[in-house]
């Protein structure tokens, strides 16, 4: 199977979610997947472009896909769900009306390229069994809940991956790296998204619910795959605690950071120092569990 | 030949986009046409009289009517020309409505196309020959497929009229979905109490042959003379010997078998009689659950059976039944809520379906009629009902209304309050659809007398909080989001076509819609007929239906069969294949392609072998005609000459 994959980081992974970019690259390298960053990639259009006109969004995102095609790559992976939606939406627009799409793009495009998330890439190219075999430090003893957010599997019509309402792809990855995954009913509840800037109480309310549910089901950490979700759950956790008059202190890690830990990668390669809520509590629990396991096996 | 052409205006249906006068005028130029006219409604009484008058006045020998589809009025016009003294096959129809006026706006182009279609019809008619139907006797036995309430009603009505009835049921017992219900709306009468006597009647009527745990394998023949192969599936119990005593069920060690009759809520034994009122009340071994079939050891039931009815070596058996008519009453299945990931059915034991709650309410159900929730057996204090799960939702490919859920939710909420007066019931609904007799009054009673809280809005999510479930939804009347904590959530799953409906339709050669429901012959005027003569429909196999409507259709289908059987013979269609023996080379290709087995060998006095068509079996499909190398087999009324003449006319 072809191991080379086009990589579209998007803007968040250059700044806010720099650790998502770093850990994604590290994990892929460790698993033998070669990421080729799309040369001269541009903004996917994000919310403003498709708010203005869907065609602008499709063309902006489409240019990146066309560049990937030029580079002879047939799969584009982007870790950001916002970019994922823009890129998949662009393909959808192309399929609806190829002539109109190519006209807006200002060049030819043959639409053969596929767009996947990091979850889809790990499950399709590596798979849970192979991933479990690659694990060197299983995260045994860690109760981690997967939080997918709103965009990763939606809209179902063009996401075409996992169940839109009860996704399980991240669950399977977490199980493969040894985590205990409690049933988490708020996998796809809204975190408040960009209202953090304009109407902050919406985010503190909605994110508060999500963190509350995570604590209720016994989570020691939350796994995420979206920079915006991570920002609301991690960066704003203090705001949320203040608004809700309670303390959570719940580490919120990117799924790639957790996979990296299990693969035995160095913490600095995973950007763990970038997290606002310290993952110390989680890491010590994992160490304890492995120490116990070690002493048990030594005793045995 | 002297031909008359009648061009119908069909009011404005045809005349608005076809110049019917010009079509009639042009027809006068075609060979043999001696009379042509257009008329406002040719199918009307005066319209038919015009044709008959013209036949007499112009000594016509053949008639072409350019009007609607032959499926609509060919029979009408054939009768009309027959009354005027012509053979009914000296008539042709050109479809200038469905094929022309309804589908094109360009009047000039439409008129030209109509002229060409008339020309084709004239050329074919010039080569038509009078054909004569023969009469064959009708076999006055009727097959009913499906032993739910619709099939039971149809079978009993036919049997009461003295007919021999063959009733085939796929499950072990008749009774269908209704046998699983506790009470019925809007009267709250006990389902088993009103259905039970009818089931017993079926067992006791001497002229009803019941094949339970059997399936229709193949159907051949035609109206009046069908041959049906039925596979009697192995039950591993000799039903002639079994007395239904139930001793085997008591002693069977495989007690952990999932109880399908109780919608997987309880367990049963591997040898089982599904419910106390089962008809026939006979035991069956569920092979995949039986210890003997898994390990080769056990045989407890065989040792204990007082009548030695257990036979582990039993195999499926095929029986053949000859019948004259078929009533299809195969019912429906219920939507599997798994596609609604946000509702968690299957993941959370206290999120159940309507039919599961029906079993919980039933005195013969898994909890003996005590309303408890499946997870821990606690009595619920709050129950939420969610309407339209798999109904009126395009996202799960179920855009239609299931018609029964609004009513069964109201009934279940009332019954829950009757069982547990302290319980609070909530219903999330989109609209309340209660158009039957006393139906809306019933829903009002649930709201006003039983205090059921109706919340207008969809449910977005169901999730556990502690040991309760939280139902999160919208209240569109308040314009607010609401959360209701509940101990039990009942999803009102909608109606879908019965599993295997499409395969059965292929065997019966009847049509079905995109959701697998069988198509009636006309949505208003022929609701229980199909487009295959002699095959009728009853109940929810045709579309979602409640009990009164299913019973009414059962009786309606029975009355159609009785009308058919009131005659002793039926006229066969003479549009069948015929062999020109002098041309036949005896190659046998026609025998191999005929799907109906309607061609056999015939040996002439000189010892040569020729094909021979069994006219009563031939369905007139024309495969043999197309296959025959020397063109010795010709389908009457659609001979090569006739088809080629039409093509020549079109290409001229």
TrEMBL record, chain A:
One of its GO terms (molecular function) is oxidoreductase activity. The keyword Oxidoreductase applies. It comes from the Bacteria. Keywords: Oxidoreductase. The keyword Oxidoreductase applies. Pfam families: CCG. Residues 5-87, 147-233 form the Cysteine-rich domain. PANTHER family: COB--COM HETERODISULFIDE REDUCTASE SUBUNIT B 1. This is Heterodisulfide reductase subunit B. It comes from Desulfacinum hydrothermale DSM 13146. The lineage of its organism: Bacteria, Pseudomonadati, Thermodesulfobacteriota, Syntrophobacteria, Syntrophobacterales.
UniProtKB/TrEMBL annotation, chain B:
Transmembrane segments: none annotated. Coiled coil: none annotated. Keywords: 4Fe-4S, FAD, Flavoprotein, Iron, Iron-sulfur, Metal-binding, Oxidoreductase. Its cofactor is FAD. Pfam families: FAD_oxidored, Fer4, Fer4_21. Residues 233-264, 281-315, 575-604, 609-638 form the 4Fe-4S ferredoxin-type domain. PROSITE patterns: 4FE4S_FER_1, 4FE4S_FER_2. GO terms for molecular function: 4 iron, 4 sulfur cluster binding; metal ion binding; oxidoreductase activity. Belongs to the HdrA family. This is Heterodisulfide reductase subunit A.
